[in-house]
Structure formats: structure tokens, C-alpha cells
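Bumping with the actual sequence this time:
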Amino acid sequence: MNTRTSKVGRISAKFSDKEFRDCYVDSHITNGLSFQIRGMRKSRKLSQQELAVRLGTKQEAISRLENPDYGKFSLDTLKKIGSEFDVALSVRFISFSELAAQTTSMTKEMISVPAYKDDDGLNNWCNIPSVQYIDESFKEKPSSLLQKRIVTIVSTGSAISNG
């Protein structure tokens, strides 16, 4: 049995406890976001002060966001950070099995997400066979240009704009 399989086994056994599940999710979100913000900032060779200026905030705010004990992220702040680093932000509900798989296969590369211009994975976009609208009603009567461009994320985890 490999190391990853044994980690998943140990974690899944503990998931029967609701309190453990809640703490695990909280820790995954708080630690993951803090480490990612710090990792992306450092990979771009920015100080906390420089990032704060770019985001229109104070250095202390960046320090708090990079502290795993803080845990008070707002979606607006995360979207600003994503925009500044030119990366996507994905917020969605997932199963515990998917969470366990994600957390047991985390790599250093997953912490420091590349900016759009450095994202080599984009070259694979045109090789994805199918694209569907998230909501079929968008296809018939889209109420905005944004809705016209909404697509499902296909099983590879990539998305293609349909227009």
C-alpha cells in the first residue's frame, strides 16, 4: 500500500466523526488559502507591503491573510487577490472523498498557482471534446454577455469559452 492510500485510509476512518469533518474542512480552507496567498506572493517576489499597495490595503491585512490562524476570508477579498495574481478562484461544495483526495495529493506546485500568462495548461484547452452550458436556459435566452460565456467545467477541470 502506498503512502497516499494509507493517508486516505487514516483520514476516511476519522470522517465518521462530524466534529472531525467540520474541523478538517475549516483547517483545509484556512491553511490552504493562507499558504496559497503566501506562496503566490513569494513566487512573484512581492513583499507583503507591495501586495498591500496593489490591493489598496495595509501590510497588516496581508499578514493576517497569510496567517493560518486568522481564517476570516471574504469572497470579495479573495476575488481581488485572484485578480491581482491573475489566477482563477474556484469556490464550490465537494464530497468528503474529493476533499480527502485533494488534501492527500497536494503538491508544492498546487500552492503557488501560475498567473494566466504562465499557465502552460491552457495549451490543452482545444483538445477537450465537449462543452455544455451550466444552465440550458442560458443557451436559449441569455440575459447577459457573461451568461453567454458560462460553460461547464468538464471532467478534466478545464473550461472552454463558447463565444
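The C-alpha cells above came from a reply further down the thread. Residues 145-163 have pLDDT under 50 and may be disordered.
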